[in-house]
Amino acid sequence: MGLPTLPKIYNVHFVAIIATLGGALFGFDISSMSAIVVTDQYLDYFHSPAGALQGAIGSALAAGSVVGSAVAGPISDKIGRRDSIMFACIFWFIGTAVQVGCHNSGTLIVGRVFNGFTVGITSSQVPVYLAEIAKAEKRGSIVIIQQLAVEFGILIMYFIGYGCSFIPGPASFRTAWGTQFIPAFFLVVGLPFLPRSPRWLAKVGREKEAIATLANIQAGGNVDDPLVIAEWEEIMVTMRAEKEAGRGWRKFFKNGMWKRTMAGMSVQAWQQLAGANVIVYYLTYIALMAGLTGNVAMVTSGIQYAVFIIFTGVMWLFIDKLGRRTLLIWGALGMGFCHIVIGGVMGGNHDDVPGGVGNPPNPNIVISVHGGAPANTVITFSYLLIVVYALTLAPVCWIYAAEVWSLGTRATGMSMAAMSNWVFNFALGMFTPPAFINISWKLFIVFGVLCIFAAVWFWVFYPETCGKTLEEVEIMFSKDGPKPWKTKKGESRLEQEIQAVVERKTDKDHVPVIEPAE
């Protein structure tokens, strides 16, 4: 599969903005339910789904994403990072059409599974694509644009859903879901103008094209630029090592590769197990528990998504100045503290409401937090948890997962990491609505404990990858690599390699010219 031959735009930030419209699809589908699940129109039409059925509707996106992320790697290796994103959009259009035309909860679930298949591919391959085109010192700030796109998608779709809640009857949610066509349309239009990943081009033997693309991205087209030469030489060295490593699934576990496989997959699992998506998906439920109703509850929940964007935007400025380990460890501890405060306050200050809170009653919400200080504390720490998440695990887990793989394993490895994310997303999506009914406030204590375990895991197993080339990360996970807790950010050797290239260029007996390998 190939896209039309059109003029290419090599500005990395422009490339990132277009590519991360794939993240906007993710965000749109997340909050396509958030503002709608508490509306009378939704509850009436779908007969007030509760417990496992509401869990199935909510987690259908994740179920499709598990399948999408599972096939994303082979597809991406075959047709390229860019074209795999285009391929995924086909299923988004199908899924959105099914959702708009759904007539019961079963067809709604089917539509969300199709959309999830798209999200599974884009959530794994957009970070791979961005990591492979970005300079080492800017890679975090480029990949974080993906997270910002997710959050903008969440915010925009939430308030579209809120606005559509004033439309009577099923047209309310059908109109909201129909707007999901819009970001996919712009993504499909923009993709043909993006270059292919130079590392993927090198991997499939298109080396002249890879060199030209690398030069266009990194040095305005100058193939003799020292940075271009140094990066190309690193790519070639890594590719030779990977050819020697062989093919098949064994390469994900042999010669220390198991450390990278474990890190890439577990960091995505912990992002879900940290429990932030309980707040992201179901803050409307928490607002109702805290006594907020009607438009106040809806707007309060929507403001959360704006807070999400603001603080991830702040982190965009600093992501490559701070270590990945630091942010992961302290982020997990901060989130754990917030979960435990929320659960503790709920546990000591609530009334049981077996029939469900609200008018009409919502059967998923069976406790009411006392008004005043307890309710305000719950809302405040829910917001604070999102702030900590936006600054730390939300962007860093995707960045770290995109950085740990080698060239030969990156596409499939990132799809494995994304699949780990979506498996736990699905499991928690099925678990959370019944958990709100059965263990209510204790749900937050469970997530608080999991966050503490996550912080310990990060400290013991994850070496620092910030400021290092993708090829250098190979050393961090090698058999003779340093202990994770002894690694530091920004210890890249690329500058020394660039200097070596400059010295060679000044050597009268050696004029370096990049020549593709035979």
In short:
The chain has 518 residues and is mainly alpha-helical. The protein has helices spanning 12-19, 21-34, 40-45, 51-79, 81-100, 105-133, 139-164, 171-178, 181-190, 198-203, 207-219, 226-245, 257-273, 276-289, 294-318, 324-348, 373-391, 393-403, 410-438, 442-461, 473-476, 494-506; strands at residues 350-352, 367-369. It is a multi-pass membrane protein.
List keywords for this structure.
globular; two-stranded antiparallel sheet; 22 helices; Sugar/inositol_transpt; 518 residues; mainly alpha; carbohydrate:proton symporter activity; Growth Hormone, Chain: A; transmembrane
Can you walk me through this structure?
The two termini are 26 Å apart. With 518 residues, this protein is mainly α. The chain has one domain: Growth Hormone, Chain: A (Up-down Bundle), CATH 1.20.1250.20. It has 22 helices and 2 strands. Strands 1-2 form a two-stranded antiparallel sheet. Helices cover 71% and strands 1% of the residues. The model has no long low-confidence stretch (mean pLDDT 81).
